[in-house]
Task: structure prediction
Amino acid sequence: MTPGKPTRETSPPHPLDKVMPLSAALAPLHSGMRLMLGEFVGAGEPVACVRWLLDSAIDELTLIANTPGLRGGFLKALLFDSGQIREYIGTHVGTTEQSTAAYLENRVLVREFFPMGTWAEKVRAGAMGLGGILVPVGVGILDQPGLFPDLPTAKQTLDLNGQRYFVEPALTADVSIIKGWRADRLGNIEFRGTSTQNQRDIAMAGRYTVAEVNEIVEVGEIAPERVGCPGVFVNAVVKGLSLDEQQEVYRQHWVKLGRLHPPVALA
Result:
């Protein structure tokens, strides 16, 4: 070892170290907030953060997410059963029994549904600091009288170059929670698989952002081209399940749903 050169074990903590315990990272979250969650039909859910939220007394949340999650009583879908969600802003409620029931029984407010591309662009607009976007999709359909009775006013339209557009306001949140594969201590996030969907934009659209990851590595171990969300957009990093533990959670649920066969015990 070079004299005077600190090893990894003896290096002092970095002043911008963002790794913290789960309870400390989620301490800013409280009832009545707008919460944005990264996932795609249950894939890439921040398991530890959702479990913490289910065990909390936090409620009256406005949940902003692409979908309500995966059917069969899986993680985020249980927030609809627990009564913690007051309003949902997403693309539909039909992927889980819990969200469907909450919607049909008027236990959760859904002012309107958005096509997935529109929802994603509204989040991106919020991430980029834009006031909104112009969207031609659904004009003449999604603005039919009585289609969304909980909208306080009719959907705003604008004519530009012979085309009519919806004027869609940007989506932002008080707190965003994203799910990554690896993070370094500065909050740079590396994604894998389906969890790459919209996660950087969701991080940027939150005033305070928590990243749950499977692994925490030292600064420099994630190649620059593999950084899916720069640490400047992340306020806190929490260590969730390992990748093997996360995959086992999903495997058990797919077995429960009959999509996978249970493992065969070896004699």
In short: DSSP finds seven helices and ten strands in the chain.
